[in-house]
Amino acid sequence: MAKKILIDCDPGIDDALALALAHGSPEVDIVGVTTVAGNVGLEHTTDNALRLRDFYGMEAPVARGAARPLVRESLTAADVHGNTGLGGVVLPEPKSKPSDRHAVDFIIDALAAAPGEISLTAVGPLTNIALALHKEPRITEWAKEFVIMGGSYTRGNTNPAAEFNILADPEGAAVAFNAPWRTVMIGLDLTYQARATAAVRSRFTSLGRLDTELITPGLDFYGQHISYRDEGPAIHDACAVAYVIDPGLFQTRSARVDVETQGRFTSGMTVTDFNATPDLHNVDVATTLDAERFWTLLTDAFRNVADNLPD
């Protein structure tokens, strides 16, 4: 039986590829996509999710979420993803509409309707998750697992200390990390092992419109970012979806992780203590990726998507 997954995201080029991985994988069933402001503003992340839904032929509903962080001014990554979020990708205007429900209510209702069955997977800022926890704390009991793309135990990518998704809403992230569930943190130390090198991209050249209309223009734009030029862009968000599909691709270590919300230079840092006493551990931190198996998983899923794109 396919695993159920609910994806909270801020599309975003790598979010687009994460959605393709989930849609093309028979191992998972997407029960919904919720959007949050992050890589770009909410109007663009929601519009992009709808465009991608139509392009891929997904049936899962899309629900619009939080338009700003809990307490801070908005932070975007338009320099990495482009002003509208999908870089050089141009998809048709969406035909579908978002759900009438707010993303927070959608998350709560979905988890309540299927307790213990849905992998809640967040690959953007954690604002929607924090709001859902505030409104209905029992979601920590109802989620099968909580997997995020965010954080790091050695570095940042938006500043020296912090990864973008956490820095975009540190207070929201702190709520999510401090909740009584065990977070799986797929951070930069792991995702930088999933770089779309020229050899990797050669696997996608036979995928027709999926490659020419989405993968190639997306990765070409993404790859212009200075930190990616030598090795190819890291496909961050797809790693979190891959964990839900096949946790055996990853090695993890148990740790205590707290989110810095006050530091002048370290706000948004995921302070990771592998040596904390086990009773304080709250996170499984991904450390090592089986990259060859990861790219095979991704390529097979993309092929399924490419073979079934709507006309």
TrEMBL record:
Residue ranges of every copy of the Inosine/uridine-preferring nucleoside hydrolase domain listed in the record: 5-295
Any GO BP: purine nucleoside catabolic process
EC number: 3.2.2.1
MF (Gene Ontology): purine nucleosidase activity
Pfam family, one: IU_nuc_hydro
Record key words, sorted: Glycosidase, Hydrolase
Protein name, as recorded: Purine nucleosidase
